[in-house]
Write a structure and sequence with these properties.
Length: about 270
């Protein structure tokens, strides 16, 4: 069975690791690397996986999942890039970094797949977008899918779309959490106890998300069904539109996409 090493097991590395274990990937086929020994101890105790150094991971694993911050990828690749045999599969989880960044630091012919997942992987509800980079075949994409399918939904996209994907689904959970946080605060403004406001909004978010997924209806239809003539909802929507919520979202996601591009530009 494929041996996977997660290089740089921070938040995303840990959620990949824990997801693979939940999906039945044997701990004996998983390796992790960390920068700090204490972090390694934590992961070893929590998951029973082997914590090794980056060189040992390169030697032992078939798949190297790179989960360091984009800004740390250059240092990691300077350490191990040239030593990676070209039959290993590199899966980059790094926002912004194009696969060409890795290819330039790896032996010629090494396959690279770029993946953008998100934190709902922790509850097996991730959205993971997978792209073939240099030398990546259908088989390599299938390996990435095998790893990420148990963590939620997967989609294949051309790499040229990955910065936009990062802006939408990679960062997306943060926008929803911000919205929920603000709506709970609105409940406080309206005099509700925080716990009550929290319960109302979280369940409303879950119900709305399940309807979006399962009803097959366009979000406009679902919103119209809530919006009664001369009712409460349209009064709120007028305020949202007055405050430019739609334009703010367009600008915000464009800024996230631009930041991904900037990360790439700063890394070359
Ligand atoms: N957070 C998110 O929601 C998402 C993040 N991503 C991407 O995932 C990647 C990881 O992000 P995230 O998990 O949030 O970041 P974290 O900082 O939590 O994780 C990165 C980990 O890599 C470790 N590390 C750094 N350099 C090395 C090295 N040379 N050898 C071994 N370990 C190393 C860091 O160690 P130390 O603890 O010492 O800093 C840290 O624990 C990023 O590239 C990000 O763009 C993608 C999608 C979503
Ligand atoms: O904020 C970030 O850069 C990372 C990438 C997508 C989500 N978090």
């Amino acid at each position: 069975m494929t041996v996977v090493a997660v290089l740089g097991a921070g938040k995303i590395g840990e959620l990949v690791l824990s997801g693979l274990l939940r999906a039945g990937w044997p701990a004996s086929k998983l390796l992790v690397t960390t920068r700090r020994a204490a972090r390694g101890d934590e992961l070893r105790e929590r998951y029973g996986v082997r914590v090794v150094d980056n060189a040992a991971a390169v030697a032992e694993a078939d798949v190297l999942a790179i989960a360091v911050k984009p800004q740390d990828a250059g240092t990691l690749l300077a350490e191990i890039g040239a030593k990676i045999p070209a039959d290993k599969l590199i899966i980059s989880l790094c926002a912004g970094l194009p696969t060409g960044f890795f290819a330039a630091r790896l032996p010629e012919g090494t396959p690279v797949v770029r993946v953008m997942t998100n934190t709902p992987a922790l509850v097996d509800q991730a959205m993971t977008a997978i792209s073939a980079g240099p030398h990546a075949t259908g088989e390599h994409l299938a390996v990435a899918e095998e790893m990420f399918k148990p963590l939620g939904a997967t989609i294949r996209v051309p790499e040229s779309q990955q910065d936009a994907v990062t802006a939408l689904s990679g960062s997306g959970p943060a926008y929803f959490y911000l919205l929920v946080e603000a709506m709970i605060d609105a409940g406080i403004l309206l005099g509700l106890p925080r716990q009550v406001a929290h319960e109302l909004i979280v369940q409303t978010a879950i119900g709305s998300a399940v309807m979006l997924r399962d009803s097959g209806e366009h979000p406009v239809k679902l919103r119209e069904a809530v919006t009664s003539p001369a009712g409460t909802t349209i009064s709120a929507i007028r305020e949202l539109e007055n405050h430019g919520v739609r334009a703010a979202l367009l600008a915000a996601l464009e800024a996230a996409r631009d930041r991904a591009r900037e990360i790439a530009a700063q890394s070359t």
